[in-house]
Structure formats: C-alpha cells, structure tokens
Amino acid sequence: MYEIKTSMTTEEKLEILADAAKYDVACTSSGVDRKGKKGELGNCRAAGVCHTFASDGRCISLLKILMTNHCIYDCKYCINRCSNDVPRAAFTPEEICDLTVEFYKRNYIEGLFLSSGIVKSPGHTMELMCRVLEKLRTEYHFNGYIHIKAIPGVPDELIAKAGYLADRVSINMEFAGDDSLKKFAPNKNFKTIINPMEKISNTIALHRLAIGKDARMERSTGNRYLENSIFNIKRIEEAGEGYKQLPASISSGNLKRAFAPAGQSTQMIIGAGTETDYELLQTTQRLYQDYDLKRVFYSAYVPLNDDPALPAIGTPVPLLREHRLYQADWLLRYYGFRAGELLSEEKPDFNEQLDPKCDWALRHLDIFPVEIMTASFELLLRVPGIGPTGAKRIVSSRRYGSLNYEHLKKMGIVLKRAHYFITCNGKMMYKTPVEENYITRELTVVNRKENWEIVHRNQYEQMSLFDDYKLG
C-alpha cells in the first residue's frame, strides 16, 4: 500500500525524485509568453524554463521532479519499475508547491516539470498531481510555466483539469510499435495513449479558434504537408455530438485559463526496442499531422536494468542516434521534408556520422549543385548549411544584385557544408568533384569534432542547484 513516509526530509526526497525525473525528456522552451499579474507570483517567458545537464548528457528543466518514484507498473526499461530495489520517496502536494515557490523566489527556476510513478492507480496518481497544480494556481497564485506528464488511462475530467491548469501536457508514447510497447510496458496500450492525445489536440484547437488564432500550433514556411494533413479544421469548426474533446471547464473557483496554451508533446525511447529510424520518423510525422503535437522528444535509452530483453548494462548510450533523430525531426517541422524522403525500408537508419540533411543530399546528387541566384526557396532549404533564415536572405538579397561566397558567409550560410552543393553565378567555391564517396569523406571530417562531443557528453559532471538548498 502506498504511504508517504514522514521520516524523510524534503531535501532527501528532492535528491531522489529530482534524479529519478531526468529520464523524462523535455529540453525545450516553454512556448508561452505570459506577463506577471498583480497579486500573483511569477510570469512565463517564451524563452522557457531554466536548463541544466544531467550526468548522462540530457538537457533537463528545473524544477523537474517526480511526485513519487513508487510505481505499481513493471515497465522493463524504467529504473522505477516495481521489481527494482531502489530508494523510494514521495512528495505531498504541499511540499511540491513550497519547493516550486521557494526555488522561484530564489530565481533558480521559471517553472515546474511534474511527472510521477503510478501509485494505487493511474486515476489516484493523476488526482494528486492535479491537486498540486490547483494549489499552485489558486492558493499560491503561481503564474509561471507548468509542464505536466499526464498518465494514460485516467478519466477525461482529470486530463481536462491538467490541461486547464498547466501550460503543456504530455503523454509518453514510449515506443513507435505496438509489439515493443506490449513487450517492454505490459501495463500500457496504445488506445489509452492515443485516445487522450486526440482529445487534448481537439480541445486545444477549439480554444485557439475561440480566441481567433489558427487551430494548428505547428507552422512552417517550408512545410506544406502539414496544411493538408488528416487534422481537419472544418471538422473542428463543425464539431458534432460524436466529436472527441475534453470537458469545457474545471471546478477551480473563478480561475479562468486557456487550455494547454503551450500544446502537448510526447516521448519515445531510442535504443531499447527494435524500431528503425524510419519507423520512428514515420510515427513522428503522423503525430505532427494528426495530433498537432508541439514536440516529439527522443530519449536515448540508458542501460540501467538487468533484463535479457534490454541492451546489457554497460552498452553505450545511443546519443548520436538520438541527435540525428532530433535533426530529422527539425527537417520534418521546418524544412518541408517527409519521413519517406529521408529514409525508406531499403535504407531504414541514418548514417550516424552525417547529419540527415547531408545524408539526403548525398543520395540526391543528381539535383546538385544548385545555383544560388536562381534556385527556389524550397530548393535552397534542401541545401546542407542553408536554413530558413539563410534561404530568405538569399532570395531577398539576390533581387538587388549578384551574390558571391563572401556575401553568403555574412548571411550565416554554413559554407563548410554548403559549398559542395551550390554554385554562385555558375562557379563552385572550390574545384570539387560532385561525387558521393568523396563528399561523404569530406563531410565526415567536418562532423568529426561535433560527433565526438555528442558521444562523450555523458562524461560531463551534472550541475545541481540543490547542493546548498535549505528550507526556511
């Protein structure tokens, strides 16, 4: 039976539960810009929640904690699974509120990231987490950023309450394939994940339409496919009786808040299951299309559990693979790429030594080099070393005169990658053979230092704001 032990100090709980939370990935800005209000504590800047680095190299947000690491589930990949013999702790809602406010007053944090193990039942745990948020908003008048990890399989009313009290809500998908989810998390299923994800998405869209904004959160200059996705705006505007959405209000006195204004996100574990990069990227694309997620996070699996179904303890953490998936995710959202262009069943995984854009370009040398003075904006976006800002600058500047490589450098174009794939007024920067093996070798050298830093960043010492923490 779940009991909160009173013999443990808040500082001891914090040490356990802050460390246990580092495997929930959310290294992102808040996405919300909310000014302070008279009589309320805190604000929320779009620049986001404070960041630090975990010992395994992940970027984590503070105050980032679990409500408890007690758990009735036995997910094979999770350090907090019920069959593991690890130190356990639990916060009361009041303790989390006090910690959040005290850290905020000390300027240590800008918000709260709250997740939890499952105690008694998903509904009971979610109710406790919602109690934290409601106290922060109504009793402590905390107006800062809150990101809550919702628990699959709870009543709609609790998901709705979390959405109205938090800025971002996320439900972890964990794996791209149903077989892997059943194998590694037997207590979970995709229905209890996708159903609330769809309702959250629909409810966010309705709230955005109600205040005169676009229903979709994701917008990209180069991303055409999002405009024609399954996510049907007309379906929302003409919502009928069978429309899947969450309750329209919460019982929190006179508190009136937008529903999850920073959107929803999810997390997928990399390296524990057998999914290929292609399968992961296809799933990511569908999530952006169908549920308008703000972000999909990728968490490289850290081998901590001794289980025959998992990579052995001591197996290197696939940090470089995680990094390539984040880069590919960026290409999906902001560069107009699709999963089927970047990878295929014949080539299901990225070349980890190259970034995905270079990898794609090397497989499409028939369209390169492109001429800077005449190439379309969409084609410029596909050149390694040219991003949306650089492409806009090129298109704008070439109307007033001829561009050269010095101009491109001043525009922020990364010529060490781009010069293999472009010409200026018909001339390449150097006499370079447009040949796959040659360019691959050269770009591998260019990426070598960055790749080494990514692979070895788990050796960095974890920073902590808690070492000198004292209550009072």
Strand-helix topology:
Layout lengths: L9 H11 L30 E3 L5 E3 L2 E3 L26 H13 L5 E5 L6 H18 L5 E5 L6 H10 L2 E3 L7 H7 L5 H21 L22 H5 L26 E7 L6 H15 L3 E6 L18 H16 L4 H4 L13 H7 L7 E2 L5 H4 L7 H10 L7 H6 L4 H4 L3 E2 L12 H21 L16
Parallel strand pairs: 3-4, 4-5, 5-6, 6-7, 7-8, 9-10
Antiparallel strand pairs: 1-2
Say what the CATH topology of the largest domain is: TIM Barrel
The chain-level mean pLDDT equals 83
Which range best describes the helical content: under 10%, 10-25%, 25-40%, 40-55%, 55-70% or over 70%?
25-40%
What kind of oligomer do you see? single chain
Task: Write the CATH architecture name of the largest domain.
Answer: Alpha-Beta Barrel
Poorly predicted parts: 45-50, 52-56, 224-233, 459-472
The gross shape turns out to be globular
Strand order of the largest sheet: 3-4-5-6-7-8
Assign the CATH superfamily of the largest domain: Aldolase class I
Number of strand segments: 10
Helix and strand run: HEEEHEHEHEHHHEHEHHHEHHHHEH
